[in-house]
Specification:
heterodimer; A: 255 residues; mainly alpha; globular; B: alpha/beta; Rossmann fold; Alpha-Beta Plaits; 12 helices
Chain lengths: 255, 332
């Protein structure tokens, strides 16, 4: 199937315009991760974290987790934008356009990935203010790769749900029952070692576990699994979820 | 060549037949109307022609391309204005048009020129920089019609173009639609449940009911089929003898008694009213109200479907509600 570059670009640009204009959405979605950073970061300041060496402290453990959380929420919300368009009728305008469905999916992914990367980077900046330190430019580059893979994975997930749902309430319920477990199971806030084995088993089925662990490893040098394992897992998950998202979106009807 | 050729088109949803073996052809440059109540299958028909829904059976060729096989080619050749607004309220009017023209692959200079052109056509040039959320209903409608035209489609679909608009705005939109059709020669298919809209705008009208066509012709010929004017008499008293007497009069083409209103079809009704009142008196029936109506499409609808469009709408509404509830139960 042909990819229409202009269509991908114009879908991406629309997302950017909307993102910049919706200031309340921007700040609203940043509020929660910032509060987590401030209150958990300060509250657990003196707590030793198993496996975190080099005196990075809890903030060194927490910051990558909160960046991962920001990416998880903002990219799965990309599915919401499909439902939003359905609700306001704009989806029909998109679906009736003479461009391949693959281009439509790519445009959505490009827009969603950019907005969630921007959100993630803003939280990264906030964590630096909170005293988080990373190892240098190469570490940051590797971290960006993990951030992008996390975004892709959950944009795919959002598209799967949004393509099969007709209303926003249903999507809200999914957010609570799917996205929050992804978050808590990932070890974003607490080391997985402390969980009972059954929860830990679930954690290893959660893509975000590898995303957060990889991000932590890339930025601080300390991770539960080798960074290469995290990278391979995330590459696999993101490819799978993007494929599923694209497939479900393509086969959904326009009205 | 026909702009549209439809043969035996069918669409079923979970066993419910929304469109039932519809066949018709629309000539190039024609302004063609689908008239019927809500739930008659008009929008479903349009959505199939616009490639948004896949037909269950039958075939449709739009601008020379098959809607099931050549979807992208069909999409390129058509413009569509949906029943519900399909604009992005967080973008300005111009940005909405830019989005559209880029999706349709127009070059930069051409985009600018055409956007300016259509904005002028619908008189929105000075509102182009305003967010669409701030537009009134009529302005949104005009912007959507403009958008449907920016890529110069061969066929333009208008699904209930004036639904929910005030009389003045409706009149305005009618004028645009006519002007468009005359000046640019674009083939226009519109759906409506407003009789006067179909009557005023369309070259030919198909009356649609329960997913099928009940009639298809020019508005004038459809009205002629009724055989003249309709005189309605509101009667008081036992009308049996009066009806029997009327049955012997050859100039009465049709009579229909609904509750106590007797509707009679005849030519030159205004000349017959005095006779009718006298006759009624002779047969012991009092006439409390007389109404003379030159035939409208409303009567045409009544004639072809046996009910008025409003009654139809009530039952179609119930049917739709039942269907929606059925869906919700299944999902839950």
């Amino acid at each position: 199937m042909r990819i229409h570059g202009t269509a991908v670009y114009v879908l991406w640009r629309r997302e950017m315009i909307r993102y910049v204009r919706a200031k309340s959405r921007l700040f609203g979605s940043l509020a929660m991760p910032v509060f987590f950073l401030i209150f958990l970061g300060l509250g657990f300041r003196r707590m030793p974290v198993p496996g975190m060496d080099g005196g990075a402290g809890y903030i060194g453990f927490l910051a990558p987790g909160i960046i991962g959380m920001t990416l998880l929420f903002s990219s799965s919300m990309q599915g919401m934008s499909v439902l939003w368009d359905r609700e306001f009728g704009f989806l029909k305008e998109i679906m009736v356009a003479p461009v391949s469905r693959v281009s439509l999916v790519l445009g959505r992914i490009a827009g969603g990935a950019t907005t969630s990367m921007l959100q993630g980077l803003l939280i990264f900046g906030a964590s630096l203010v909170m005293g988080f330190r990373f190892r240098g430019p190469a570490a940051l580059a590797a971290g960006l790769v993990f951030m992008l893979l996390i975004s892709f994975t959950f944009i795919g997930l959002g598209l799967v749900f949004a393509s099969r749902m007709k209303d926003m309430q249903g999507f809200g319920i999914v957010m609570n029952f799917v996205v929050f477990p992804f978050f808590f199971l990932s070890g974003a806030l607490t080391p997985l070692e402390n969980f009972p084995w059954i929860i830990r088993a679930l954690s290893y089925a959660d893509p975000l576990t590898y995303g957060v662990d990889g991000l932590r490893g890339a930025l601080t040098g300390t991770s539960a699994l080798p960074v290469v394992v995290d990278l391979a897992a995330m590459a696999g998950f993101s490819a799978l979820m993007l494929f599923l998202g694209a497939y479900f979106f393509e086969t959904s009807e326009g009205v | 060549m026909d702009a549209i050729r439809v043969e035996g088109l069918v669409k079923t949803f979970d066993g419910f037949t929304a469109v039932d073996r519809v066949s018709f052809a629309v000539a190039e440059g024609e302004l063609f109307g689908l008239l019927g109540p809500n739930g008659a299958g008009k929008t479903t028909t349009i959505n199939m022609l616009a490639t948004l829904l896949r037909p269950t059976a039958g075939s449709a060729v739009v601008a020379g391309f098959d809607v099931a096989r050549d979807r992208d080619a069909v999409r390129k050749s058509i413009g569509i204005v949906f029943q519900e607004p399909a604009l992005d309220g967080r973008l300005t009017g111009r940005e909405n048009l830019e989005f559209h023209t880029m999706m349709y692959g127009l070059g930069k200079a051409e985009r600018r020129r055409r956007i300016d052109e259509v904005l002028a056509l619908v008189e929105l040039t000075d509102k182009a920089g305003v967010l669409v959320d701030k537009y009134s209903g009529g302005m949104k409608r005009r912007l959507e019609i403009a958008r449907g035209l920016t890529h110069r489609p061969e066929v333009l679909f208008l699904d209930e173009p004036t639904l929910g608009l005030d009389a003045q705005t409706r009149r305005h939109i009618w004028d645009y639609v006519r002007k468009l059709n005359k000046e640019s020669g674009v083939t226009i298919i519109l759906t409506t449940h407003y009789m006067e809209e179909a009557d005023f705008l369309c070259d030919r009208v198909a009356i649609m009911d329960h997913g099928a066509f009940a009639a298809l012709d020019t508005p004038a010929r459809l009205k002629d089929a009724l055989g003249g004017d309709v005189v309605s008499l509101e009667l008081e008293g036992d009308a049996a003898a009066f009806l029997e007497a009327l049955g012997r009069e050859a100039w009465i083409k049709r009579s229909k008694l609904r509750e106590d209103v007797l509707s009679l079809t005849m030519e030159r009704g205004e000349r017959r009213i005095p006779d009718l009142v006298v006759m009624a008196g002779r047969h012991g029936v009092a006439v409390s109200c007389v109404n003379l109506r030159k035939p409208s499409l409303e009567d045409v609808f009544l004639h072809f479907t046996g009910r008025t469009i409003r009654e139809r709408e009530a039952t179609a509404g119930e049917r739709n509600r039942a269907r929606v509830m059925h869906h919700q139960r299944r999902r839950a």
